[in-house]
Write a structure and sequence with these properties.
The protein is of the alpha+beta class and 606 residues long. It folds into 4 domains: 4-125, Immunoglobulin-like; 150-299, no CATH class; 315-426, Immunoglobulin-like; 511-605, no CATH class. The protein has 9 helices and 31 strands. The strands form 9 sheets. Strands 11, 13, 15, 16 and 17 form a 5-stranded antiparallel beta sheet that branches. Strands 22, 24, 25, 26 and 27 form a 5-stranded antiparallel beta sheet that branches. Strand 16 (234-237) and strand 17 (240-254) form a beta hairpin. Helix 5 packs antiparallel against helix 6 (524-543), helix 6 runs antiparallel to helix 8 (563-578) and helix 7 packs antiparallel against helix 8 (563-578). The longest helix has 23 residues, at 452-474. Residues 126-148 are annotated as: Disordered.
Amino acid sequence: MIRPSYFISCLVLIFALFRAQGQTGFTVSVSAAKIYRNDAIRVEYKVTNGNDVRDFVAPQFVGWNIISGPSFAQQETYVNGQGSRSSSYIFDLMPAQAGKLKVPGTTITADNKQYTCQSTVVNVMDKDNPSPQNNNAGNSPFPLQRLFNDNDVQDDDPFLRDPVLKNGETPDKKMRDNVFVKLHVSATTCYAGEPILVEYKLYTAIRIQPRIKRQPAFSGCSVTEMTTDEASPAEKINGKLYRVIMVRKVQLVPLQQGDLPLDTASVACDADFLVAGNPGNMQPFSATFSSQPVTIHVKPLPDKNKPADFSGIVGHFNMQATALNPDVPAGENNTLQLSIEGRGNITGVPLPNINWPAGVDHFEPVQQDNIDKLNFPVRGIKTYNIPFLGSKEGNAVIPAISFNYFDPEKGSYEVVHTDSIPLHFSRAVKHSLKDNPAIITEDFTTRKYIWIVPVIAVAVLLAWWVMTRRDKKAKQPAAASAATAQAPAQTPAAPVTAKPVVPVTVTPTDFSAAASRLNNEPDIREFYNRARKLLTLALQEKLDMPHAGTHQLLDALRQQHGDSLVQQCAGLYAQFDMALYASALHEDSRPQVMAQLQHIIQQLKA
């Protein structure tokens, strides 16, 4: 017989789980706990089930170089009717040294409470990975955009014909006299938090086939990848005409004062040289070119007139706020729309403090970003839509909202204000949800689920009672069982034929047809976008995780199939990510990517 204490323990456990559901948590995770020194990892700082997430303190990554980040992501999932949400700050890092490197913990604010996550350690082996997982970093397998079209070769165009070696010239000298990589910066001195434009460009005066060998990594700053619509412009330097190709274009925001060294970029270039007077003698030659290092001197922000609640943002901004409906009945939904527009570190702009009047309840804001990454400084509009409602009839005023920033052009701290927003809440109208579906009827707390606890308790007690009765019946005398066995046999009842259960069949994706359609996609960026989605779909079907994201899928794949297949998938995802910023991806890469994608899908289907 099962003791009552067992069921009491079950009740306590159930109640504890119920209380834990929906609680806010803050954690840090890494894509791999053990890597080579030329690998890269992704670090994710995640807040789960938190409202009003703000004031993320960017960690200081000692011993690491930042490839990109922080980038911000939000996700909502629903499983069996239960919802959860998360907000993440993501960094891509590359180790600057071997050994056990610390990924530091940090703090963040959610629900007006500060949370701290614990640090973790990554073991960096003191040797290179022959197939590095580099998340946009070095040893990129992709060629840069093709500078020359083989079908348009003309004898009088030096860019469209193979270079010629004259008497006394060597391929090495010819190449180095006509090809170089240069690092351009918008300024060599800036304030902490002030954006800097960094461009790595390849210059060539002869016909070559270039490919990125090493992308630069950054430490001590946030990184925003910028896009460019430039093809391959020509530029004259010291009387010589060069074709110019963008290797990488980023906006950096230094996080602290001091010297900020910028890493180098390397490009491998191949060329076929003709020998003058001997057209049949062609000499192939390869050389690697790297940019010269540049150091940015980062000045501290001035202490004079620095606001006590300084936002930490540098640039130039304007702000406005409005209520979508300033006159609504009490208890009905309304929205405060707050927009901050400007140039500079727009991605880091936090939600300003709002002094809500008494009797007004507000809920989690919805953030929208519209950012132009074509121009420097990065411009954009960050909009917060904040739901609210008045709890009683009457008038209220949302006071003016202020936001401060440092303007590097003026060298001073600036403050922008919105106007105060008058509100009127009229008498509450009694109507059903059918009449007005905009009325807020959802309870944003867990009170509506409290009934589950007594229901579960009754179910557990009922199960206990049934099992107790079963134990008593099992202890009846054996004689009763024997007497029953000697009783005349009864005529067996006619068998009942059960209707067959027809299983519900989910048709799997026809990946062969999907790959064929993908291969016919004419737009190169759309090709990589669809290829990424196809790989994600294949992983979701293989792992039966239809709503999981990339990192969840790779973690689950590692547990079921080990590191080999995970590294292949992660490498392919890294190739897809290259298409987000580089004009470095070209049609020549499509066959290689298609072959890798089809190979991985075949392994997943096996």
